[in-house]
Each structure stands twice: as structure tokens, then as C-alpha cells.
């Protein structure tokens, strides 16, 4: 395999939420704390960005046009041409420190996203967040409570299993999934890094899945993305990066055989940024993986 830098030091704080936009052959991602929405076009190599007013956690295309963006604890409609950002859903007004984190759509076009208490100096067990499902009629359904740090989700090719990362307590769960209703059942732990060395395994963050239903899991603090067989929990492949804080990943490129990986420069000292972590905040591209993904679903609401 080959690891290269696609966009060097593009994020000042935390690069997150990569999404390959099939219609424009572009990589979408965010810089969480600075509020920047990014689009990198792989055809003409243009890179454009927009600064929202505050904390953003994902950007996903909408079937009807434009994008859905998570900003603080709001979901907003965004038009890249006019650069208009219009909030239309706000949740958890009783918890002003809560924000949305990762978000993904299932093949039916529903949005799954979770909340968490804003991270200050260190990762905390707060149980202040929820996992939500936003249906196509824009109804908001609270699915799971007592969430610390809500993160990546993905589905098997047959839509019968959903995976969900609960960063603390360092676990990935699986659920039986009914794609016709969006209901989940039978929670099971499929990946468990609790008690494992932090520098070796990190904490599970964003993820994607390949065509063989193997999970690709970015593990913050480890500098690695692991390919994992969810049926056995066994690590099949380990991809090492020249930064410690990898955050998420997605498949893209003309054949969906390129893995794009975001990273964070947050909470690193000036000395680390100038010496050991010179590429922190970059977006990386991994090729020659022997694995492929597919186009990510867009929001149908």
C-alpha cells in the first residue's frame, strides 16, 4: 500500500467527516473547531472552502440539491454557490454545551448522527449525548441515550447490519438493521479496545466499510487506520500515518479504491507541530489497498 498527502496542513484544528461526492468527484470534509467546510475537486484539483459561524462536524450532499451541515447542535441547509447556510433543525436546547459529531446516511437516505458534550481539555465520560435518526420527512428520532462521544457509523452491503462507534468506552457496536423502517435491534460489541495500549490502538473514531463488509476504522492517538473483520474482531490490515491523530476515512477516486483519511492538529503543542507532527491537519490518500468501497448515500430529506 502507499500513503501520500492529498492536502497538506489543510485543517488548522480537526479535519473530520470525509465524504466523496460522486456527482462532482470531490472530497468534502470539515475543520471542526474553525467552522470551515471544504471541497477538494479531484478532476481539476481546485480546493474551495467556506467558513460557517462556529463548530461544524459534517457536510453531506442532499438529493434535492445543496448540502446538509451540522453546526453546533443544529442541522442546516447549505448552498455552495450562494454560500447561504440556513438552519432548519435545532435539538437539545436544554444542553448548551452539546454539539453534533459524526453523521452518515443509510441507503434509504436517512441521516444518522449523534451528539456529545463539547470536549474541553480531555476526553470525559459524560453520557450527555444521544444517537439520532433524521428521517426523510425531517422527523427527529432519539435512538440511544447516555452517549459520551458519538462517532462513525456504516452499514453492510445487504443493509442488514449497522455499525456504530462509541469512542468512549473505545467500542464499536453492531445492530440488526431494518432498512425499510430504520429500526435497530440486538446490540453487540464487535470491536473493543478498552484496556488496550492507547498509543498502539488509540480510541475508535470515524469509519467506513469496503465491498467485502470489512470495517476501516480510524483510531485517534494511534496514527493508524485498521481494517477489521467485524465477525471476528480481528485486525486484518494496519495503515500507519505520519501523524498520531487520524480522525476518519472514506473511499473515493474513480474506482473507489482510494482511501481518504482526515487528521487533527488540535491539542498538540507547538513543539510537536514543528517537529514530530509536521503534517497534522493534513488529508492523506492511501492506494494499493486491495480493497474498494462504494458511493456514500446522500440525504434524501
From TrEMBL:
Top EC class for this record: hydrolase
Cofactor detail note: Binds 1 divalent metal cation per subunit.
Gene Ontology terms for molecular function: calcium ion binding; enzyme regulator activity; gluconolactonase activity
Classification via InterPro entries: 6-blade_b-propeller_TolB-like, Regucalcin, SGL, SMP-30
Cofactor: Mg(2+); Mn(2+); Zn(2+); Ca(2+)
Protein's cellular compartments: Cytoplasm
One Pfam family in the UniProt entry: SGL
Gene Ontology BP terms: L-ascorbic acid biosynthetic process
Keyword presence, Oxidoreductase: no
Catalytic residues as annotated in Swiss-Prot or TrEMBL: 205 (proton donor/acceptor)
Recorded GO CC terms: cytoplasm
Family designation: Belongs to the SMP-30/CGR1 family.
Protein name: Regucalcin
Amino acid at each position: 500500500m502507499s500513503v501520500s498527502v492529498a492536502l497538506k496542513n489543510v485543517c488548522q484544528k480537526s479535519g473530520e467527516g470525509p465524504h466523496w461526492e460522486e456527482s462532482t468527484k470531490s472530497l468534502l470534509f470539515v475543520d471542526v473547531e474553525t467552522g470551515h467546510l471544504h471541497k477538494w475537486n479531484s478532476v481539476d484539483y481546485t480546493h474551495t472552502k467556506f467558513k460557517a459561524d462556529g463548530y461544524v462536524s459534517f457536510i453531506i450532499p442532499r438529493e434535492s440539491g445543496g448540502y446538509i451541515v451540522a453546526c453546533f447542535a443544529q442541522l442546516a441547509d447549505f448552498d455552495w454557490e450562494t454560500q447561504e447556510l440556513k438552519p432548519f433543525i435545532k435539538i437539545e436546547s436544554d444542553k448548551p454545551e452539546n454539539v453534533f459529531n459524526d453523521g452518515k446516511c443509510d441507503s434509504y437516505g436517512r441521516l444518522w448522527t449523534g451528539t456529545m458534550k463539547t470536549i474541553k481539555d480531555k476526553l470525559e465520560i459524560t453520557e450527555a449525548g444521544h444517537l439520532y435518526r433524521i428521517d426523510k420527512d425531517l422527523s427527529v428520532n432519539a435512538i440511544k441515550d447516555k452517549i459520551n462521544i458519538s462517532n462513525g457509523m456504516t452499514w453492510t452491503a445487504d443493509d442488514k447490519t449497522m455499525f456504530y462507534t462509541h469512542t468512549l468506552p473505545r467500542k464499536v457496536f453492531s445492530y440488526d438493521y431494518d432498512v425499510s423502517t430504520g429500526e435497530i435491534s440486538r446490540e453487540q460489541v464487535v470491536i473493543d479496545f478498552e484496556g488496550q495500549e492507547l498509543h498502539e490502538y488509540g480510541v475508535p473514531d470515524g469509519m467506513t466499510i469496503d465491498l467485502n463488509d470489512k470495517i476501516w476504522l480510524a483510531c485517534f492517538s494511534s496514527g493508524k487506520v485498521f481494517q477489521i473483520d467485524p465477525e471476528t474482531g480481528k485486525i486484518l490490515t494496519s495503515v500507519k500515518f505520519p501523524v498520531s491523530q487520524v480522525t476518519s476515512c472514506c473511499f473515493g477516486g474513480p474506482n473507489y479504491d482510494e482511501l481518504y483519511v482526515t487528521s487533527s492538529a488540535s491539542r498538540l503543542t507547538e513543539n510537536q507541530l514543528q517537529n514530530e507532527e509536521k503534517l497534522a491537519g493534513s488529508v492523506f490518500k492511501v492506494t494499493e489497498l486491495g480493497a474498494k468501497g462504494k458511493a456514500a448515500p446522500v440525504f434524501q430529506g
